Amino acid sequence: MPIRLPLSVVLAAPLLIANGEPMPRITSDSHEYCTELVGRFARLPGAAVEPARSLAADGVRLCEEGQPRAGVAKLRRAIRAAQAPP
Question: What residues are paired with 22 via a beta bridge?
Answer without folding.
Answer: 16
